[in-house]
Structure formats: structure tokens, C-alpha cells
Design brief:
This protein has a two-stranded antiparallel sheet with strand order 1-2. Strands 3-4 form a two-stranded antiparallel ribbon. With 210 residues, it is mainly α. It has a domain of 96 residues: Helix Hairpins, CATH 1.10.287. It starts with a helix and ends with a helix. The C terminus is likely disordered. The chain is built from 4 helices and 4 strands; from the N terminus they run αββββααα. Belongs to the RNA polymerase II subunit 5-mediating protein family. One of its GO terms (biological process) is negative regulation of transcription by RNA polymerase II.
Length: 210
């Protein structure tokens, strides 16, 4: 394997590994946020109101209060919201935590696969001297000639082994006719011989009588 090809392959796998690590970090953050949200939702209905600091614009905050602590608006996706209880919202957060865990497990497998590929590339590049590259020349004209010979051979095979039944039936009828003709000829020859023998007997009998 050429060194330039090895380097390019390692670069591609390095990019894939870096992207995989970024996804892992992102899903870890999602999981941590949902875990904190679930913990807060489980304790939210313990009081009827909470004093909080509410964001007011990009750089300002104002004092506020959370009321209706058992009523939560949950984002379902595509700007669709549903009003649920705190317990139901905690269950939704728990399902999303499980989804994050599943995604992290898949990404860890992908990360391990990238590491295995890179280790294999290092081994191949280290033992590059013992490898032999097989190069097979390709000639378009030679390929066309080979395909022509192949098609002729297939047609011959089909003619010999897959000939229609009516061809064999015609051949059988022809052989039967020939055999019948041969039998008729033999019978005719036998009759002629018998007639000639009978004629010769009559002639001998006449000669004896004379």
C-alpha cells in the first residue's frame, strides 16, 4: 500500500473518530440535562410556588415566581407542546434519558471500531515490506473477444442440451419412416427371390417332362 494512501486513510478515520467524540460529548450533555430535569420534576409539586429569577431578554433578569407547580408544558417536537403533570413529565424525561443511553452505547461501539481500524492501518503500514500488490491488466478488446467466444459456447451448449422436444420427435419419425422403408424393401426383395425360385422350379419341371 502506498504511503500516501495510508496517510489519506488514516486522516479519514481520524476525522470520523473526532466527529464521533463530538457526538458523544453532545449526548452526554443531553443526558445530564434530562437527569437534572427529572430530579427537579420529582420535587417540583412539593410546594405550590417557588421564587425564581426569570430571564428578561438576552442580558437581563427579573424576579418571578413559579405557580401551578404540577402543570408542565412539554415539547413534543416540531413546536408542538402538551400540558402534562409533573409526574408525567418526569416519565417523559426518563424515556429520553434511556434514549440518550442507547445512543451513547452505539457511539461507543462506533468509536471502538474507528480505533480498531486505525490500529489495523498502523500494522499494515508497519509490515508494508512483506506485502505484494497484485495488479491485473485490463484490455477492452480482449474482453470483447472473450465475451464473443463465451456467447458462442453458450449457444452451442443450449443447442446440444436444451433442443426443443419437437426436434427430437421429428428425428424419431424420420428414423421410424426409414426403418419402415427398409422393412418394405426387404419384404419386396424376399418376394422377388421367392418368385424367381418358383419360376426356376417350373422350368426344371418342364425340362424333366420333355
Amino acid at each position: 500500500m502506498e504511503p500516501t494512501h495510508v496517510k489519506r486513510l488514516k486522516d479519514e478515520h481520524s476525522k470520523g473518530l473526532l466527529l464521533c467524540q463530538e457526538k458523544i460529548a453532545q449526548w452526554l450533555k443531553f443526558k445530564a440535562d434530562y437527569e437534572a430535569l427529572k430530579e427537579r420534576l420529582e420535587t417540583l409539586p412539593n410546594s405550590i410556588s417557588y421564587d425564581v429569577t426569570v430571564p428578561f431578554g438576552m442580558n437581563a433578569f427579573t424576579m418571578g415566581k413559579i405557580v401551578h407547580t404540577n402543570e408542565v408544558m412539554v415539547l413534543l417536537g416540531d413546536n408542538w407542546f402538551a400540558e402534562v403533570s409533573a409526574k408525567q413529565a418526569a416519565a417523559i424525561a426518563d424515556r429520553r434519558i434511556k434514549q440518550c443511553t442507547k445512543m451513547l452505547a452505539d457511539l461507543e461501539k462506533e468509536k471502538e471500531q474507528y480505533h480498531n481500524w486505525m490500529n489495523y492501518i498502523d500494522e499494515v503500514s508497519a509490515n508494508n515490506e512483506g506485502l505484494v500488490e497484485i495488479v491485473e491488466k485490463y484490455d477492452d478488446e480482449e474482453e470483447k473477444r472473450w465475451r464473443g467466444h463465451r456467447a458462442s459456447a453458450l449457444r452451442y451448449t443450449y443447442t446440444m442440451h436444451f433442443q426443443p422436444n419437437w426436434c427430437f420427435q421429428a428425428s424419431s419419425h424420420q428414423k421410424s419412416s426409414e426403418s419402415q422403408l427398409s422393412s418394405a424393401e426387404k419384404l419386396s426383395q424376399t418376394g422377388d427371390s421367392a418368385f424367381q425360385e418358383n419360376s426356376s422350379r417350373q422350368k426344371r419341371h418342364q425340362m424333366v417332362c420333355i
